[in-house]
Design brief:
The chain has 546 residues and is of the alpha+beta class. Among the domains are: 60 residues, no CATH class; 100 residues, Phage tail protein beta-alpha-beta fold (3-Layer(bab) Sandwich); 188 residues, no CATH class. The strands form ten sheets. A six-stranded mixed β-sheet has the order 10-16-17-18-15-11. It has a four-stranded antiparallel β-sheet with strand order 1-4-3-2, with no helix packed on it. α1 runs antiparallel to α2 and α4 packs antiparallel against α5.
Length: 546
Amino acid sequence: MSVHRYSAGSSELSIGKLIKVNYRGQERGGWFIENISFDEVKSGEHAGEWKNVTGRGAMAVLADGMVYPAIGSPDTTRTFTNVTMASMLLTFIAEAKARGCFPDLRTDFSAVLDSTGEPWTDLSTLSFNVDSNLLDVINQLVDLGLEFDFKLDWIVGDYVLYAYQTSIGSDVSASVVFRPGLNCAEVNNKQESGELKNALRVTYNGGATEITDAASIAAYRRREAPFQVGNVTTSGGAVQMATPELTAKKDPQLSISIKVEDAAGNPRAFVDYKVGDWVGYDAGDGAAPALYRVRGMMLDFGENDKYAVITVDLNSIRLERELQTAIALRKLGNGVIGASTSSPMPEGVAEAISAHNLDNTSHATRTLSGGDLAGTIGIPTVAKLRGRAIKNPLTLVDKNLLKWSNANQQFEPGFVNWLEVEGKPSTFAPSAHASNHASGGSDAVKLDDLSAPDDNTDLDASTSKHGLMMKYPGGTTNFLRADGTFAAPPGGSGGGDVFGSASVTDGHLAVFDTDGYHIKDGGAVPGGGSASVPRGLLVYLNSNFS
């Protein structure tokens, strides 16, 4: 980075400072200033007025700590047995922090879980050279398949190290395709031979042997390298293990570097794709776009540029396979698979390795043997679950589950029978649903649709509550009284006096009111006393009807 010596921010730049990088409105990491240079005098106008600042990414802070020997030990290596690789790294980090290194470093994984929350599946036996820095340790673990990310938490003010046991990144090749002449300014095919090796000295438990590739030696000269397989005890087994490693190393590695204008309309770095993602590359030869993995990005800004020109390094799927194969073999050679370095190779691994060929066609047709997989390496079939057979052929219908059959000693498809469900409650509390059956509800119940009641008085009405009508007692002389009982009316067969209110006059007539059914005081009898009342008239005798 170049900054004018007399700009406002120039005085803030010093060795050890952390530069925060923002792009497209978000923080994209940072780097530590490690080198500063400027010219006091240089020919040309203003030629000596720029300050040049360089440095490494934030993960370089891990180089501040190193591997110490165990307390009181003269050993030149630190060996861990039957633990996860994450546990080894965390041990080194904790020891370095105790000595005062990494005061602002935080880890987002444990000895048991990676940064996605998935359990680590390795049990490893590995040795590390004393005095190696922890960045070298991480590189060693990357060679064995782990992947790492390092982010800056600007709110908390610390650094966070993430670790993953599977490849990070996503397949975005359906939406991100780089095409020369359309969104690629430059395309550079690269052949890299820095890691080329064609003569391996293979050491194993009990001896050593050598494996070479004559054609590669003739083309590129003899290039030697060590290869260790700690969990193999024979020369033949060591050669089987080393052959795929030699195949992956004997020729230059092919990759593509493309230069992309990160402007509107083109795939956007950090938004549409990032390091670790799989993208498409259309070479314009009429074939379908090939699949490549983004292995690195370099952003270059002009003085007034809003968007960067990005150099994207891509690995072909073939190269990725070679790298993953080499990683798998390093794991085997270093005892990562299995409980210890003396453990035998997992069932079927030696056979698959001895048959291995990195050519796509022959590689895909190698037969698998042992383990839970059947078929070929290219198109495997899950034949077992934890060593227990799965019915073959397997015919499934909707909502089938795989159930273990003791009788047939295999997993078979089927439905779950209610009687097979264990731990179910013996009774179930009914849900509240009275409103469904009430008037206007979704399942209203009509009174006349209910079943006939029992012959009892459980639901009879009373003087204190509403209820049903009681059962008729029968007969024609009794009537229902207000107290809920049936009884004969007072007066027996109809004799007796009729009484009304006390506000009447003795000797007055009783007459119908204008409403047609009330009887009221009708006044005095015409002509005087009761003796002159015409036959058929009703006379009050001390009371009144109302």
